[in-house]
Amino acid sequence: MISLQNQIILITGASSGIGTACAKIFAGAGAKLILAARRLERLQQLTEELKKEFETEVYLLQLDVRDRAAVESAISNLPTAWSEIDILINNAGLSRGLDKLHEGSFQDWEEMIDTNIKGLLYLTRYVVPGMVKRDRGHVVNVGSIAGHQAYPGGNVYCGTKAAVRLISEGLKQDLLGTSVRVTSVDPGMVETEFSDVRFHGDTERAKKVYQGVTPLTPDDVADVILFCTTRSPHVNINEVILMPVDQASATLVNRQIEK
């Protein structure tokens, strides 16, 4: 088992959900955190909590992963003490809408593709060369069951998560011969802001997604990510699919609806 003490972990989408849960669990393991997200106030609030509870060293990046120039600038201008990133957690991602493909919103499509695929690629492209040079590191891509199974209305979102899965496979092959590891962690239903975002802030509709089900929590996913990153250096967990007991596939869910 690898110690994460003083390792530098870069987490995108750190201002909520799985990203915040990762920040907390890695802080508890003694890591130093680079937290990236668009919402700086959320990051500052999280930083105060982490420093109070764990005395964690934190470096903040207000960053939209869709902006390639901003990603390049953020990574290339990291202070020397923060520049040798040990673990990259590509967590930033979102879903928009459940429209049929032929009725879909171009804006929704572009936001999902730019965040889920291109944003992940930008971070990977600017961080991984340093890992290869140092011959150590780990890239964790947060995917989804949607990358394995399409579902009605999921079309473009499922396509972006399928891309994450195959990009992870391709990266692992490209890094063969180095000590850099690659993992795709693909959850089913997780109760986060995911559905709020998908339905453009329609909280009542979002709540119905999890009604009658005990979904995964962000902490459950962060726990799996921690496990993957702390295995012996010769072990690579290529892919993990995790779901709540109440879910058997992208579309099969056991709901206990109160009568």
Automatic annotation (TrEMBL):
<dbReference type="InterPro" id="IPR036291">
    <property type="entry name" value="NAD(P)-bd_dom_sf"/>
</dbReference>
<dbReference type="InterPro" id="IPR002347">
    <property type="entry name" value="SDR_fam"/>
</dbReference>
<keyword id="KW-0560">Oxidoreductase</keyword>
<comment type="similarity">
    <text>Belongs to the short-chain dehydrogenases/reductases (SDR) family.</text>
</comment>
<dbReference type="Pfam" id="PF00106">
    <property type="entry name" value="adh_short"/>
</dbReference>
<dbReference type="GO" id="GO:0016616">
    <property type="term" value="F:oxidoreductase activity, acting on the CH-OH group of donors, NAD or NADP as acceptor"/>
</dbReference>
<protein>
    <submittedName>
        <fullName>NAD(P)-dependent oxidoreductase</fullName>
    </submittedName>
</protein>
